[in-house]
Design goal:
The complex is a heterodimer. Chain A has 21 helices and two strands. Chain A is mainly alpha-helical. Chain A has one domain. Chain A has a two-stranded antiparallel ribbon with strand order 1-2. The radius of gyration of chain A is 24 Å and the shape is elongated. Classes of the chains: A mainly alpha, B mainly alpha.
Chain lengths: 405, 146
């Protein structure tokens, strides 16, 4: 009877638990606490955390197919040299056709989800504030400096150039772009990079204000900006077409992200595709967010996530974020020196990181702290949406530099 | 068809074992690429903006000219009506001001200046966006920023 119970125990999941899995449950708990109790990016962190929990349970049929004798077949394998005297062909199995999430996670591996999420982002984004105040696009460019500085730091810390690029993109504060780039250049870091990117995006209201206050004076924070002119629908449509052409010509490797972002935006602005816009703004982006989040979470297995590299990525991520914020604020101050007649409130420079619209809200909130009558939300949306384009272009630059290496 | 070679490739190759100089050059190159893309977009926006601002200014000037031409007739119609009879005067409103707005203006004048006040003339200000901005401010102020 005892041996029967022991045999049964071997068939349960308990026999396959490891200390690493239990440690990851703690990580999952922390992520769920952030998402549910603190409401920090819950739409992404809840699926990621849940996916991470599933990845650290001895599941069957979720990630790989249940290994029944009829159904398993190898789809990717490498032939190994047969040992002397052996009559059998030896294969190293690279991938077994798998379960539910083996198929769903193809959306990341084949680089489908991030561009499709960008379709929804484009459909939700109003580029009007940027078009009305075009020079704020420079703040979106300046905020990418942090991204390159972090690339530099990560390389010095021993990461390969591809890994460093994946870590640096965290400073862009753009989740889909970070996932897109990381999957392309350093898939082994995908889980850590995604968690760091979304965690820091959620922590924008905590990370940015101290840096903004440190780099600005009370007088600068009180600067009021001129009312934005009304931008016509035709102007917004021409903007979407023009940006698509310019960016794809300059950085073809960013085509997937840029094209889908601006397709979504054109659908929004053209005014004749209401059903498509509603789908992109709601059903498409919501469904893909669930699938993307859980797919990312499923990459967070204990054996890959609980490594010193993850801690370095978390630390480098906050450096990237801080540098991007600081670069945006400093760029705004420089612009004020060069053009003192039409000053910009330097707080909106911090919105150059592309956490839309959180970073713009933080700039607005900090402006109101200094002057309750100051309304910076719309001017801050300009650099904010410029940051989305800037981060996608930077990702394209990294891909073109490292493609095929 | 053979592609046009307008610009050279912008991404530089980073050696497998990059030195400090290689890394700095790579970073600077990346910043230049991003800045170039966004500056090109800036130029595009300025071009579009200049065109649309000019078109808007021309339309505003035309509207202002029309409203000036209609002003005497409007003034006569409005002068004949007592301020307290605002809603009754709405059908005689100029085309540029919607009747609902006229009702509100009459009511506001009546409430603030009293029944003896008379409105002599009404004309839209082409460049006035303050009230729209005020409305936006009121909406934003009702949202809590966390």
């Amino acid at each position: 009877m005892l041996s029967g119970l022991l045999d049964f125990y071997q068939t349960t999941g308990f026999s396959q638990l490891t200390w690493g899995m239990l440690s990851m449950w703690v990580v999952v708990g922390v992520l769920l606490w952030f998402a549910v109790a603190k409401k920090f990016e819950p739409l992404l962190l809840v699926p990621i955390a849940f996916g991470a929990l599933v990845a650290n349970l001895p599941t069957r049929g979720v990630i790989t197919y249940s290994e029944t004798s009829e159904a398993v077949f190898v789809v990717e394998a490498e032939a190994l040299p047969a040992p002397p005297g052996s009559h059998h062909q030896h294969l190293r199995v690279e991938r077994v056709e798998g379960g539910l999430y083996d198929f769903i996670s193809q959306g990341i591996k084949l680089e489908l989800f991030p561009p499709l999420i960008f379709l929804g982002v484009g459909a939700l984004t109003d580029f009007g504030p940027l078009i009305a105040l075009p020079r704020t696009i420079l703040l979106g460019a300046a905020a990418q400096v942090g991204l390159f500085l972090t690339f530099f730091g990560a390389t010095l810390l021993g990461f390969t150039a591809k890994q460093a690029a994946s870590i640096g993109i965290i400073g862009g504060a753009d989740g889909p772009t970070a996932i897109f780039l990381s999957n392309k250049l350093a898939p082994e870091l995908l889980g850590a990079v995604a968690v760091a990117a979304y965690s820091y995006m959620a922590l924008v209201p905590l990370i940015q204000p101290p840096i903004m206050r440190l780099l600005t004076t009370e007088k600068e924070r009180r600067i009021r900006m001129q009312s934005l002119r009304k931008v016509s629908r035709l102007e917004k449509m021409l903007f979407a077409l023009g940006v698509t052409v310019v960016c794809i010509l300059l950085v073809p490797d960013a085509s997937a992200l840029i094209a889908m972002l601006l397709l979504g935006n054109f659908l929004r602005e053209c005014g004749v595709t209401e059903r498509l816009v509603k789908s992109a703004q709601n059903e498409i982006i919501n469904v893909l967010t669930i699938l993307l989040g859980t797919s990312v979470g499923l990459t967070m297995r204990a054996e890959t996530f609980l490594a010193p590299a993850t801690l370095k990525i978390i630390l480098l991520g906050v450096v990237a974020f801080g540098c991007s914020t600081a670069a945006g604020v400093i760029a705004a101050k420089i612009m004020n020196k060069l053009s003192p007649k039409t000053p910009i409130n330097p707080l909106i420079g911090a919105a150059g990181v592309s956490a839309v619209p959180m970073a713009a809200r933080v700039a607005h909130s900090e402006g109101q702290r200094a002057d309750p009558g100051n309304y910076l939300l719309m001017p801050a949306m300009g650099p904010n949406v410029a940051g989305v384009i800037g981060t996608a272009v930077a990702a394209g630059y990294f891909i073109s530099a490292f493609a095929g290496r | 068809m053979s592609p046009l070679s307008i610009v050279p490739p912008l991404a530089i190759a980073l050696p497998d074992d990059p030195g400090l100089g290689d890394l700095i050059a790579f970073q600077l190159n990346g910043i230049i690429v991003v800045a170039t893309a966004l500056i090109l977009i800036w130029g595009l926006m300025e071009l579009l903006g200049a065109f649309f601002r000019r078109a808007e200014a021309a339309a505003s000037a035309k509207a202002a000219a029309n409203s000036t031409a209609n002003a005497p007739a409007t003034a006569n119609a409005l002068t004949a009506a007592p301020a307290g009879a605002g809603p009754a005067a709405a059908p005689a409103a100029p085309r540029a001001i919607p009747p609902d707005d006229l009702v509100l203006i009459f009511a506001a004048v009546h409430a603030t200046l009293g029944p003896r006040a008379r409105i002599i003339s009404l004309a839209p200000r082409p460049e006035a966006r303050d009230w729209a901005a005020e409305g936006r401010r009121a909406i934003f102020a009702t949202h809590k920023v966390r």
